[in-house]
Each structure stands twice: as structure tokens, then as C-alpha cells.
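Human:
I keep going back and forth on a fold encoding question. Comparing notes only helps if you start from a blank page. Show me how you would write down a chain together with its backbone fold. Write it directly below this note and I will take it from there.

Assistant:
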Amino acid sequence: MADFHGVFPYLVSPVDASGQIRTDVLGRLCDDLIKAGVHGLTPLGSTGEFAYLNREQRATVVQTTIEAAQKRVPVIAGVVSTSTADAVAQARSYQELGADGILAILEAYFPLSDTQVESYFRAIADAVDVPVVIYTNPQFQRSDLTLDVIARLATHPRIVAIKDASTNTGRLLSIMNRCGDSIDVFSASAHIPAAVMLIGGVGWMAGPACVIPRQSVALYDLCKAQRWDEAMKLQRRLWRLNEAFARYNLAACIKAGLAIQGYDVGDPVAPQAALTADERKVVEAVLRDIG
């Protein structure tokens, strides 16, 4: 199983007015992120607007990312569904395209028991030969992964990591204490990455890394070197961007930030809306101050 670690930007999904994926823009973004030193790429995370794309659009995003990466860094493709059979089909198809790993996400309409949640993630991991990262975001999802479920899933040979996007860093420490070395923990933008690295995290998967990749990699390197005073000084600067993004729609903010930097990624998919002129100025000011 691969050793996933470091900074994995959650990629945006550039979509034009007709619904076509702007593959040239996405390919250029992937190439620039790799040149900036990121450790991997994650298409179809939350920032990738997976909930707003159809099957063909999702496949195009994954394929474009894999082709742009050219095996320079691992690509962990997001798989999401309310249906186990559909999620399994997605995971298999992305593996066939060349994905190096799967980010497994569960959407739910009706409430699910712990057993049903666990069976969904196990089915995905059973269906592929690549490593699987399980994902939970109780802020947006109808179902969560309990500590008991995480501990059981951590014993699966292909489930190698979890990205927990709760705002509870203590929960991350509980996962580490409960599971030990059987599963790695990635931070999300809802957490303070340096703090997660301090307690034993292996990196972070987050949308803001799309617009500040070099600074994100520098922060990771400082944490790995245990230069905590310098890391926290940089973290304080970068946290202003997370604060700005927390105020608005995440995809709209990341797309606005990338547009400011010259990437024609387009607006978020309707019914989401682009940032207003005043909101965009807030993002622009933060990016300018960060440098």
C-alpha cells in the first residue's frame, strides 16, 4: 500500500457555461501545483463540487488529473454516492483510469446505522486494489463515522487513512489513540494543520492548498522538521485564508482565488453562486497579504 502523506490540494472542477469540464485549465492547475511541491492531488473532494457534477463530468475530472500528474505524484480520486453499488462502480472505474487511491465519501438521504455505514466503506475497499482514504464531514453529511466504525475499518488492509473534516481536533487524537498505526490521519481545512501535525497527523487534504501551494508545502516541511515556532508563525499567517473561506461558499472562494491568480476556472456550479465583487475583494486582500 502507498504511503500517502503531505499536502493534497482538493482540486476545483473548472466547468464552462455549457457544462463541459475545462480540461486545459485543470491540467495547467495540476501541473503548477506539482511544480509548487505538493505531495499529491485529490480530484472530486468537497472543493471539487462532487455533489453538483454528473457521472461523465466526474470521470473527465479524474482522467484529466491523472493525465496531468503523469505519475509524478499520487492521485486520490473522490468517490461519492448514496448507493453502495454506484460507489463501487465509480471506484473500479477510477482505478481503471489509473488513480493511485480512492477517497471514499458517503452521502445519505435516509438515516443509516453504524453497520450500514461500515458496509458502504468496506464494499469500496473490497472492490479495488489501491489504497482507500475514508472521509467524514459531519458539517455537511447526514451520516458520520463513529470511533467504533473507524476502528473496525482501520483493520481493513486497503483502508490506510482517514480525513476527518469535523472541527474537533480532540476527535482526531482519539482516532490516533484508538487505532494506533493501523490508520493515518489527514487534517482538513476545518482544522489547524500544524496542530494536527503536532499530535501525529501525516498531512492535510484541503481546498485552500490550491491557491497557496508553496506556502502549504513550506508549512508541512517546517512541521516535519519539528521547527514548531517557525511553523506556527507561518500557520498564523495562512489561517487568515481559512477564516475568509469559512465566511463564504467554499468552492466559490477557491475558484475566486484561482481566478485572481489567472486560472479561468469559471463559476461554481448552479445553484451555487460566484462571490460578489465585495466578497472577492476580501479574498484578494488576504491573498495579497499572504504573498
Observations:
- The first helix runs from residue 23 to 35.
